[in-house]
Write a structure and sequence with these properties.
Pfam families: Sigma70_r4. It comes from Candidatus Scatousia excrementigallinarum. There is one protein chain. The chain has 191 residues and is mainly α. It is 61% helix and 4% strand. The protein contains eight helices and two strands, in the order H-H-H-E-E-H-H-H-H-H. Strand 1 and strand 2 form a beta hairpin. The longest helix has 24 residues.
Length: 191
């Protein structure tokens, strides 16, 4: 899958317009690569220019933050992200200030919570919706294969192939073939 020159130019423009790009121009290639890696699965499926640009702006924010964190130029604090050259310290007591004794100052960095990243959640929802839409279309094209029912039994209800085979009065190998065929058709729908 390739990106057109128009989309590459859009990605470049979005990166260069991001406020964190200033003073980090030397990391442009890393920003660009990270953004392409994150956007590649979806970018060619979005048809609306406005939707594509909004999606790429979300991707840019996360991509640039990740590159800056990985390169050691940014760290997460309680207040948000802080460049490493800005150190926020809790104010030491007056007594320790008067003695010029800073050995009691403790600097700690809270762990970042990456599980609830809004961009990732939005992308996951969009991908899942595309999968569901593809499965419904595939099932409509071949209703006798029961692709939708097999998918629901396997992934929604967590049944094994053997249990599905028993439920549908088919062989386990037939269920395996249909699941594989369904996943191949879903992949084709994404391309």
């Amino acid at each position: 899958m390739e990106l057109t020159q128009e989309k590459l130019n859009l990605i470049e423009r979005i990166i260069k317009n991001d406020r964190k790009f200033a003073n980090n121009e030397d990391l442009y290639d890393d920003f660009f690569n990270e953004m392409c890696k994150r956007s590649m699965p979806i970018v060619n499926t979005i048809t609306s220019d406005a939707t594509l640009e909004a999606y790429l702006r979300k991707i840019a924010t996360t991509s640039i933050l990740n590159v800056l964190k990985d390169s050691g130029r940014l760290r997460r604090t309680r207040e948000g992200y802080t460049p490493v050259n800005e150190v926020s310290l809790d104010a030491p007591s007056q007594q320790s200030l008067s003695q010029d004794n800073y050995s009691n100052v403790v600097i700690s960095y809270p762990q970042a919570d990456y599980d609830s990243n809004p961009e990732d959640i939005a992308v996951q929802k969009e991908i899942l919706q595309k999968i569901v839409d593809a499965i419904y279309l595939i099932n409509e094209a071949e209703p006798d294969k029961q692709y939708l029912r097999i998918y629901k039994l396997r992934y929604d209800e967590g049944m094994t192939q053997k249990e599905i085979a028993s439920e549908l009065n088919l062989s386990q190998s037939e269920i395996s073939k249909r699941l594989f065929k369904l996943m191949e058709k879903v992949k084709e729908a994404f391309n």
